[in-house]
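Person: I have long wanted to understand how a fold can be written as tokens. Underneath my words sits a plain record pairing an amino acid chain with its backbone structure tokens. Those tokens are not coordinates but codes from a learned vocabulary of shapes. I should like you to check that the lines agree and flag anything odd. The protein I mean follows directly.
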Amino acid sequence: MFLKSLTLKNYRKYKNTSVEFPDGVIGIIGLNGVGKTTLVEAIGWALFGHHAARTTKEQIKREGASPHEPCSVALEFELDGDSMKW
């Protein structure tokens, strides 16, 4: 599997973020508490549901988001030459 892109809306610390993954090895660096683990966790959440997250489904939504704002994760990847969106 090759990751292509990840889009987060009201997921934990991220209000509206898109990440494009280039070909090759990828490193995620940054200070503590800025959301590195959240990016990896969001991939698991997209593929396996809320069971892959560190908290309950209700606690995943970004603090401060209004009740009518959706919480979503969209993952685009390539598997065996086929492009998939999840």
Notes: The domain at 2-85 is CATH 3.40.50.300 (Rossmann fold). Strands lie at 2-11, 14-20, 72-79, 82-85. Helices lie at 36-48.
